[in-house]
Amino acid sequence: MRKMLVAGNWKMNKTVPESLELIHALMGKLNDSCPVEVVLIPPFTALYPAAEALRGSRIQLGAQNISHLSKGAVTGEISGTLLISVGCRYVLVGHSERRNLFQEDDAMINQKLKTALSEGLYPILCVGESWEEREAGKTENIIGHQLKAGLDGLTQMEMRKMTLAYEPVWAIGSGKNAQPEQVQEIHEAIRNNLSSQYEPAVAKDIRIVYGGSVTPENCSNLMAQPDVDGALVGGASLDADSFYAIINAIK
Length: 251
Ligand code: 13P
Description:
eight-stranded parallel β-barrel; alpha/beta; 12 helices; binds 1,3-dihydroxyacetonephosphate; TIM Barrel
């Protein structure tokens, strides 16, 4: 049975005081019986204070990015070891904003995944099509390619540490979420794709979460789909009430 996961990707938002305010507000609402795994993904600058504030709670911490290299003279980069040292368990890899704004290609993403795994992190690999690609009927091809190239060379054991996030680029920050049936269709296709390359248990057990304009209003129908195992939330995770409402709607 796959445990649902709700992750809040704060992107380039929240100073340290703002991060702590949000965390305390959220901790005041969540109780220990919450059946959902909750992950906060603040900017790098807030990771350490966030970890301190979350000490003893069941909320996990993730990072938004990782260097493809593991150490050394790499100005401006953050390695997996550094992320682990501030309490991260998860790391986002291949977010469309990284692919599009920073030209991260599948080879770079593959290297980041391998580095993250070798350093003990649990990566969340983001995949998804643009609106033009969807209109041209290329969605499954694009995602198939992102999976094949991104996951190239990972062992079955490593695959067991992976989470996938389907984030259609056109749905991110647009207020226009993909419809639940569209999401189910793609998540099922991803599972089928994986089952042709890995042990059946890998495809069956891997968590595939959806991201793209998830809100308290639309999340119940999205999360009710059989192959949807949670949400990767951007904008709505910046407010404790709306993020909690999303977590609470998943039961
Ligand atoms: P929004 O929820 O703001 O659309 O962002 C989604 C996202 O990119 C999460 O990684």
